[in-house]
Amino acid sequence: MVFHRVARSGQVPEGYVRRFYVGELECAVARLHGTVYATSNYCTHLDCLLSSGKLIDDGIKCSCHGSVFDLETGDPIYPPASVPIQVYPVREEDGEIHVGVTAADVASGGPRRRQLRRD
Asked: What pTM does this model have?
């Protein structure tokens, strides 16, 4: 696993979630109760952007249908989502946020929007 700089600490203020990239890997980076978290950026219910959602006491809430995910485990807390999101380790040091990803995470681009079926 390699940690990559994704943002300055001030770019993710308390109570906010923002979208950042590690190569092609799209992440939602959030700060809640003083801790920085990184997750995949797409809800597992219908692929809405989690970075356009909001943080609540329980975790990150998808703006489309209200699914809530635990920021530490990625587990869905409130439906309609029933599949966890990917979570990534985070280090915050010297005023910068670093997200840890594996080569497989980066190569796959991580979870992203599903392709529309073309019949």
From this structure: 0.89
The type of residue at 84 is: P
Which sequence spans correspond to the domains of the chain?
2-108
Phi-psi category of residue 106: left, alpha or beta, with phi > 0 → left and psi -120 to 50 → alpha: alpha
Q: Do 39 and 69 touch, CB atoms closer than 8 A?
A: yes
- Pick the closest to residue 35 from 19, 52, 54, 59 (CA basis): 59
CATH topology classification for 2-108? Rieske Iron-sulfur Protein (2.102.10)
Q: What is the percentage of the chain residues whose pLDDT exceeds 70?
A: 89
- What are the helix (H) ranges across 14-101? none
